[in-house]
Design goal:
Length: 256
């Protein structure tokens, strides 16, 4: 036992190195968000954040868009996953769902803006939600597909034999078992939404989200305590949401 464990230490070292490379860039932002311009510990940035109207409006806008994208992407991702399983052309459906991943963000954003202009649709929250949902949909579909792959179709067959319709079988049998995956797809879509910049900036019009506000402010005046606090808030909120999802799925496993 000890010999097998000792052989794994290079793997653990590699994991630690990879995690350090992934998360090291976020540490300076978090530290600086809790210091003042002199480098002393302070929450002045967060205090200013709460009294900056444009930031509060951007936070509210990002929250509304994020919730809408989470709901739409998870619903459409569920329908896409069911289509991939039920239809006789799973590869074609999956390819259609994954295509947005291979289109550069700038091209997708500008193409969407051009399409909206041709259709006479003015930039608004709706245009932002549409573009961000298209970006989040492939990820939501893959997450739900992964969870559905662990579901045993025999449960559905038993429900059909008992006289349940397709809708009843899905609602009463399958949905409760794949619900953590749907919640995961919604959570991931929300995270993607609140962090998306390039596509959003092409169709946002007068509406500022948190990422577009951070980027435009950085280009105009550079970094400031308010921006550090805002970036720190987004990073910490993302970590908190990911941890909450992990804890939720861990707690549900024993019950299943």
């Amino acid at each position: 036992m000890r010999s097998s464990t000792s052989r794994l230490w290079p793997v653990w070292v590699l994991i630690v190195v990879v995690l350090a490379l992934l998360y090291a860039p976020t540490l300076p932002v978090i530290v600086l968000s809790f210091t003042d311009t002199q480098g002393n510990p302070s929450i002045v940035g967060y205090a200013e954040l709460l009294h900056t109207d444009i930031v509060i409006k951007a936070l509210r806008t990002s929250a509304v868009i994020g919730v809408a994208v989470a709901v739409l992407a998870s619903i459409l991702g569920l329908l896409a996953a069911i289509s991939i399983r039920e239809l006789g052309i799973p590869r074609l459906v999956l390819l259609c769902m994954l295509l947005p991943l291979f289109i550069p963000g700038v091209s997708m954003g500008l193409a969407s803006a051009l399409l909206f202009k041709i259709m006479g649709i003015s930039p608004s929250l709706v245009t932002i939600i549409i573009v961000q949902t298209l970006w989040a949909l492939p990820f939501a579909t893959l997450i739900i597909l992964t969870v559905m792959a662990t579901f045993d179709p025999a449960y559905l067959e038993a429900a059909y034999v008992a006289g349940a319709s397709r809708l009843q079988a899905f609602r009463d049998i399958e949905f409760p078992l794949i619900a953590p995956g749907i919640f995961g797809a919604a959570s991931f879509s929300f995270i993607i939404s609140i962090n998306e910049t390039i596509r959003t900036s092409a169709v946002q019009g007068p509406w500022n989200t948190v990422p577009t506000y951070i980027w435009s402010s950085y280009k105009q005046v550079g970094l400031s305590p308010v921006l550090y606090a805002l970036m720190g808030l987004i990073i910490l909120s993302t970590f908190a949401l990911a941890i909450a999802y992990l804890l939720l799925t861990v707690r549900r496993k024993p019950a299943a």
